[in-house]
Design a protein that fits this description.
single chain, alpha+beta, Chitinase A, domain 3, two-stranded antiparallel sheet
C-alpha cells in the first residue's frame, strides 16, 4: 500500500481529479449566478447572420460589439420584466405562447397518409384547383375595324376565302394581317394565357372552334380575327401535389400534449373545499 502511494502516477491522478472538481465547482457557481448574462458563440453567430441578411455584408467589429450590447440589454430588460411579473395577465404574451404551443403540437407530429377515398373527395371538392388548362396551337390574322370601316364584313369574307384556299402553307400571315402587337402564331398556349392576351370572350370562343380550318370572325378586345386551330389539347386533372398526398390526420409524439390541451380547454374550475363548505353552511 505504501509503495502504491509513492507512485508518481497516483499523485498525477489525484492532482488531476482535484483540479477537475475545483473547476466544476467554480464554473457551476458562476453559471448559477442570477445576475450573470452569458452570450454564447452560437448567439453571436446568429447575430452576425441576421445582420448580414439585412445589410448584405458582415458587421464590423464595432457593429458586432453594438449587437452584443443590444442583446445583453434585451436580456436584462427581459429578466427584470419577468421578475416584476409583467408577463402575467398580458394578452399579447398569452396569445404568443398559445401560437407557439399550437405550432409545436400541429407541426411536429408525424402526418398520416390519407386514404384514397379522402383524396378522391378532396379532388371533387377542389376540382378547379387541379384542372389543367386546355392548350391551343393556332394561327390568327387580325383586321382592324377602324381601318376597314364599312368594308370590314366584305374584307373578312374575302380574306377568309383566300385563307381557306391555301390552308396555312405558303402564306405570309404578316402581310395579310393589319399591324398587330401580338404574334400571329401561338404554340401550345393555355387558356389562361390566351385570356390575358385577347380577353375572356376570345378564350371561351377558342374552345368552340373546329380544328384544321380557317374560321371567323372572332372578336377580341383589339378587333376582328380569323383563326386556324391546328391542335387543341383538352383539359384534364393534374396529379395531386406531394403536400396534399402527405396531408391527413396528424399523429405522433405530440398526441399526449394535444390531448392535455383539449382537456384543458374543456376543464371547468372547481370551487375550493372551504368555499363549498361555506356555501353549504350558508344554505343551512
Amino acid at each position: 500500500m505504501k509503495k502504491l502511494i509513492r507512485e508518481p502516477f497516483i499523485h498525477f491522478l489525484l492532482l488531476g481529479a482535484a483540479i477537475f472538481i475545483a473547476n466544476r465547482l467554480v464554473s457551476g457557481r458562476a453559471e448559477n449566478q442570477p445576475g450573470k448574462i452569458v452570450i454564447t458563440q452560437g448567439q453571436i453567430t446568429s447575430l452576425v447572420i441576421g445582420f448580414s441578411r439585412t445589410w448584405q455584408r458582415p458587421p464590423t467589429r464595432e457593429e458586432l460589439d453594438g449587437l452584443i450590447r443590444d442583446r445583453v440589454r434585451e436580456e436584462v430588460y427581459y429578466r427584470e420584466a419577468v421578475a416584476m411579473g409583467l408577463d402575467r395577465d398580458d394578452l399579447i404574451v398569452r396569445r404568443r405562447l398559445q401560437q407557439k404551443l399550437q405550432f409545436v403540437t400541429d407541426d411536429v407530429g408525424a402526418p398520416a397518409k390519407p386514404t384514397d377515398m379522402e383524396l378522391s373527395e378532396y379532388l371533387k371538392t377542389h376540382a378547379d384547383a387541379f384542372q389543367v388548362d386546355k392548350r391551343f396551337t393556332f394561327d390568327q390574322v387580325y383586321l382592324d375595324p377602324a381601318k376597314h370601316g364599312e368594308r370590314l364584313t366584305q374584307d373578312v369574307d374575302n380574306l377568309l376565302t383566300q385563307l381557306r384556299q391555301h390552308g396555312t402553307s405558303d402564306l405570309d400571315l404578316t402581310s395579310l394581317s393589319d399591324a398587330f402587337l401580338l404574334e400571329h402564331r401561338f404554340q401550345g398556349a393555355p387558356t389562361t394565357e390566351i385570356a390575358k392576351q385577347f380577353g375572356d370572350k376570345f378564350a371561351a370562343k377558342m374552345a368552340e372552334l373546329p380544328v384544321g380550318q380557317w374560321v371567323g370572325p372572332v372578336q377580341s378586345g383589339y378587333g376582328t380575327h380569323l383563326i386556324f386551330v391546328e391542335q387543341r389539347v383538352g383539359g384534364r386533372f393534374s396529379r395531386l401535389p406531394t403536400p396534399l398526398l402527405r396531408a391527413g390526420p396528424r399523429r405522433g409524439r405530440c398526441a399526449p400534449m394535444r390531448s392535455r390541451v383539449r382537456c384543458g380547454r374543456s376543464a371547468r374550475r372547481r370551487p375550493s373545499a372551504s368555499r363549498s363548505g361555506g356555501a353549504g353552511r350558508g344554505r343551512r
